[in-house]
Amino acid sequence: MSNGPVTGDGIAITLPKGKMIFWSAVAQATYQQFVQVKDSGGTVIFEASGSSADGHSPTQYGQGMFQTNPSGDGGYTVWIGLNNGAGWQQVLWDKCGISHSGTDYYSQYTFISEDGADEDFNDTCLTLQWFEYLG
User: Does 6-131 carry CATH code 3.40.50.720?
Assistant: First the structure.
């Protein structure tokens, strides 16, 4: 079952230490969407903004990867909003993964947002994903 809806102005999550995290942000909205992730020290790890050219077709507006701190506390905060953070959205989110014999081989956080126009929770989709092993 998903978490939320919660306001998108600071969702606390925990990421594993020393892992490569792959992220992607997709919009299906006319309004300018905004995502940002900060570490527990307040350092911006990444941010992106964008919208759909026609207001409804899925459009990727950001992607990338980052390495989590191997000696950090694993705490991160996700921000999902509008117009570079001028407003915050309702967000549903959850963590899922693929495990076998006690090993979590793949894990992912998914966040979907509603910017207030039509209650369809498809305005932004942000994913953060990682593998237990690389290479």
Answer: no
